[in-house]
Amino acid sequence: MKDLFKSIWDSLRAGAGRSPFSVLQAATVGVDGNPKVRTIVLRDANDELARLSFHTDIRSEKVRELRARPAISMHGYDAERLVQIRVEGIASFVTDEAEKLAVWNSSRPRTLILYRSPVVSGSVIDDPAQAAAPDAADPMLGYENFCLVHVSVRHIDYLDLSNEPHHRAQFHVRDDGAFQGQWVAP
Ligand SMILES: Cc1cc2nc3c(=O)[nH]c(=O)nc-3n(C[C@H](O)[C@H](O)[C@H](O)COP(=O)(O)O)c2cc1C
């Protein structure tokens, strides 16, 4: 179990670089009570803190949803290794400006352009061109819309279809912060 737990975090850490787990699905509870899911890019996976991180626009619907209810589920699938990882956790928004700024400054400019968009994500527009970000010499333009989300991981569900029978394991965080794992039927 210990080795498996480590290998799951190795996969997630690799996702914070470039791997099948770089792009995850993140599910929230909508303000209308319905499940909502969307793709996000995994930006950091910290096993010591049991924490995943991603970036988003503070004006987006998911931020509104997470403010109302911070529960989040994330899903990734490695189609080559036939491994699915599902994570449940609690999202929080980084308010420490130094931490946020360091992440902003270390991000590729191309990934920051969307934060400059003059229109709020999801708002109705007449033409897609209306959402285009203005060219800007100011590298801080859009920073006010940049949101760094940390997900404190509470539960991991691992499924490996490359074995017969398939392997499935679950890990839950205990009160002392350590994770307890067990095999479960797939
Ligand atoms: C490959 C890919 C990567 C994406 N990465 C992110 C991301 O890291 N953060 C983000 O907020 N949206 C990302 N998006 C856009 C979201 O999936 C979603 O469309 C947008 O954030 C609005 O979602 P919301 O209305 O649920 O807030 C990505 C979309 C794709 C297709």
What fraction strand? 35-45%
Percentage of helical residues? Answer: 10-25%
- Count of individual domains: 1
How many beta-strand elements?
8
Tell me the radius of gyration.
18 Å
Q: Which ligands occur here?
A: flavin mononucleotide
Q: What is the CATH C level class, in words?
A: Mainly Beta
Strand order of the largest sheet: 1-2-3-6-5-4
Q: Encode the helix/strand succession as letters.
A: HEEEHEEHHEEE
Low-confidence parts lasting 5 or more residues at pLDDT below 50? none
What is the CATH architecture descriptor?
Roll
The total count of helices amounts to 4
Overall spatial form: elongated
* Average pLDDT metric: 94
Largest sheet: 6 strands, antiparallel, barrel
CATH topology: Pnp Oxidase, Chain A
Describe this structure in words.
This protein is an alpha+beta fold. The protein has a single domain (2-116, 136-183), classed as Pnp Oxidase, Chain A, CATH 2.30.110.10. The protein has 4 helices and 8 strands, in the order αβββαββααβββ. Strands 1-2-3-6-5-4 form a 6-stranded antiparallel β-barrel. A hairpin with a 5-residue loop joins strand 1 (23-29) and strand 2 (35-46). The model has no long low-confidence stretch (mean pLDDT 94). Bound molecules: flavin mononucleotide (FMN). It holds the Pfam family Pyridox_oxase_2.
